[in-house]
Amino acid sequence: MKLLWFHLMPYTDLPDDFKQKHPSVWVDIDSRLFDPARAHTMYNDFLDELEFAAEVGFDGICCNEHHQNAYGLMPSPNLIAAALARRTRDAALCVMGNSLALYNPPTRVAEEFAMLDAISGGRLIAGFPVGTPMDTCFAYGQNPSQLRERYYEAHDLILKAWTTDELFAWNGRYNQLRYVNPWPRPVQKPHPPIWIPGGGSVETWRWCAQLDYVYAYLSYFGYKLGEATMHGFWEEMDRLGKDRNPFRAGFLQFVGVAESREEALDLYTEPALYFYERCLHVDARYAAPPGYMSEATIRARVKSQVVQAATASATDSHAYGRPAFEEIVSKGYVIIGSPDEVAEQLREVAVNLNVGQLMLLLQFGNMRKELVFHNTELFAKRVAPQLSGLFEDEWENRWWPKPLAAAQRAVPRSLA
Amino acid sequence: MTAKAPKRLAARTLRIRGEKVRVWEKGRGRPLGVLAGLFGYPVWTPFLEALAAKRRVIVPALPGHPGGGDFRSLDDLADWVIATQERLEAAGLLGADLVGLGPGGALAAEVAAFSPESVKRLVLVAPFGLFDEREPVADFWAKRASELPGTFSARPAEFAAQVLAPPAGADLIEFQVQQVRALESAARLLWPFGDRGLAKRLHRVAAPTLLVWGSEDRIVPASYAKRFAAGIAGRTRIRSLAGAGHRADFDAPDALAKAILDFLK
């Protein structure tokens, strides 16, 4: 199986009374809380952490896109990925990803992803999220009733731009371009692997199946709540006649490793609470602009008590309640323990959810760099070996980058 | 409720480019078109009833509203104006007096600007369409469920029970879908809030125009009445309805109907 190290890049200095004094971490967060000099250190720490993860052997490193959000300091993940492309050698660069409807024209994504693929020598995983309502409809003012149509059209345009050798004209519903001819073009042919981060909508599952993309379920609420979604995904694959190749699926999980469970509790309680209390303090006002969710999904959600409960816990309780750390652990939001305990649980998660591309959040909340390194190193040395090879005898990972051969790869000059 | 209606409510289904569009009609006298506000009209209301006491009230449902047909094929303002114009034509309302509320008000103003001969006299009830950064229109889409009734109405408990809650016997899921769809249609037309050029076109509105606002409108500030009046070429009059919120047709149906009927006398 593949192990990817995911950074959200949370602002680490939100005040203790953030939740009491501020309505939301997202969209209308108080700009006076942002200290650019501190952000200078944070960005450099975060890049160090991603580079360290690549160095100790993670298969891939991930970044993503958020706007006006204090738990995601990456309005442009492509800037981060560009920096990483120069300072890493073999790790896949998983940009998870560019919210397609926010790029005007969307050929910008075709160009920048092609640049990243070229600079990195073919290591890019191209993530195509729709984007959250907070990012797309509120921070970026996209019309929620048109967002998905624009997203699908942008996708079609980018794919055609990557796979057509001739210059062409695009006369779409939302984009009209007389001359489409991106320069540069991606190293990977016909294009970099495409991964789709999604919630639990059936339409997205079908779309991923139809186009043979990875579906990545990115939830902050761990494997227990994720189980229903992933089982739904695999049942849908069965119905569509697709195989159960675990590499079709990605899943996100918070993990804290220490020598013992007690030590892990000691080390990871504070950063986890920081994440769940401050970073996820999202005002429910921004959660459901009309049209963002399809009518089919609304019907399915209203009908499904299970999903309804999960949604409620994902919005209400975290917006207004205070999850105790015991609850965060017992519900599986964060997996903590000794290397053996973590490995055992993650193996169970991977097998039970049938997920071959496991994305790990080993930095969360206000975790300081030394602890991030510690967590990452323990994971790489003592957890990863216990998971290596899983699924690989039986299944082919057709969704992994195919970089240039080592002899063809440029070596960046080292700094003086 | 006002005087007994002279004629029963009639519902017709128009075919407009393959779409089925519901048109309600009630009352005698000269025709008066009504373009609904937020949520549309799932049921005939006391406001419409009060208008129908004096006029032949004709209510073509707007795209995305209950009975209004598809709205997701409408991509830009030109599409919306044409869809509205087609409903007015098909309902026999061209050249008639026209009342528009909220998003229906924005569309009525656009039709009157694009095609001044289409509207004889115009009534805009808390219309959308203009925007002033110093006094922005409230983002009613960004509200918690508990805040919604008080955002739309100065009678929040009644609004919650009579407009936001499904009527007896309704399919709960489908009612919810219909309600979200109506809000989505407003979003498709108006999101993100801002001036889409109506300010530049208002001078084309030649019809005598009544601008009515609830004094307690928490969505479109009542001061916008003056902005509309300043831009419209035709004679304008501004009326404030004391104690009414954004959905003045719900909060003060009789007072609103009287203001409109007085103006159109």
Secondary-structure topology with pairs:
The complex is a heterodimer of chains A (416) and B (265).
Chain A: E1 2-6, H1 18-21, H2 36-55, E2 60-63, H3 77-87, E3 92-95, H4 107-119, E4 124-127, H5 133-139, H6 147-163, E5 168-171, E6 176-180, E7 194-198, H7 202-211, E8 214-217, H8 222-239, E9 249-257, H9 261-279, H10 295-303, H11 305-320, H12 325-330, E10 334-337, H13 339-353, E11 357-361, H14 369-387
Chain B: E1 10-16, E2 19-26, E3 31-35, H1 46-52, E4 56-60, H2 77-90, E5 96-101, H3 103-114, E6 119-125, H4 148-152, H5 156-164, H6 172-190, H7 198-201, E7 209-214, H8 224-231, E8 236-241, H9 248-251, H10 253-263
Parallel strand pairs in B: 3-4, 3-5, 5-6, 6-7, 7-8
Antiparallel strand pairs in B: 1-2, 2-4
Number of helices of chain A: 14
- At the fold tier of CATH, the topology name of chain A is TIM Barrel
Main beta sheet strand tally, sense and closure of chain B: 8 strands, mixed
Identify the biggest protein-protein contact and residues per side. Answer: A-B, 22 and 22 residues
By DSSP, the count of extended strands of chain A is: 11
Please identify which CATH superfamily of chain A we are dealing with: Luciferase-like domain
> What class, by secondary structure content of chain A?
alpha/beta
Shape call of chain A: globular
Spatially, the strands of the biggest sheet of chain A line up as: 1-2-3-4-7-8-9-11
Terminal residue distance of chain B: 20 Å
Arithmetic mean pLDDT of chain B: 95
Rounded radius of gyration of chain B (Å)? 17 Å
- Radius of gyration of chain A, CA atoms, in whole angstroms: 20 Å
